[in-house]
Amino acid sequence: MKRSLPEPLLRKVDCVRLYVSDLGAGLAFYRDHLGHELIWHTEQAVGLRMPDTDAEIVLQVEDEGQEIDLLVDSADAAAVRFEAAGGRVIVPPFDIQIGRCVVVQDPWGNQLVLLDTSKGLLVTDADGNVIGGQG
To answer: What DSSP element (H or E) covers 103?
Structure first.
C-alpha cells in the first residue's frame, strides 16, 4: 500500500541572499564579471537574474552571512505546520515588502527563511529602481 504524503510545504527557492560590504563592488563582480543581469535595486540590496530559474541572487549590505529564502504559500501557516512537525520557530512571522516571512529551524539545527508573496512582487521602473509592490 502506497503511503499518501501531505502537500509539500516548500514551493521553490525564492532567492540566495549574499552579504557584500559595497553594492557597487558586488555589482561589478556578479553583474559585470559573472554576467548576471540586474533585475531590481534599492539602496540596501540588488536582485540579479540566474538564467535557468526565476530564483534570484540578492546582494545586500545589511546582514552579514548567507541565506536561502524558500517560498511557501503562507508564512503564517508554514510556521504552524513546521512546529507541528517538530521544528522550531526562531523568528515569528513578520511583514516584508512582498508579503510575510518566518525564520524556522529544523530538528538538526538548520535555519530556514520561509516567505510568501501575499502582497505581490516588487514593482520597478525602467531602470530597475523599486517603486513599490503589486499589492
So the answer is: strand 99-105
pTM of the full structure? 0.84
Closest CA to 73 of 114, 129, 109: 114
Ramachandran angles phi, psi of 4, nearest 5°:
-85, 130
Q: Are 15 and 47 in contact (CB under 8 A)?
A: yes
**Amino acid letter, 38:** L
Residues 21 and 32 in one domain: yes
Mean pLDDT of successive 10-residue segments in the chain (135 residues)? 88 96 96 96 95 95 93 97 96 95 95 94 80 67
CATH of the domain at 109: 3.10.180.10
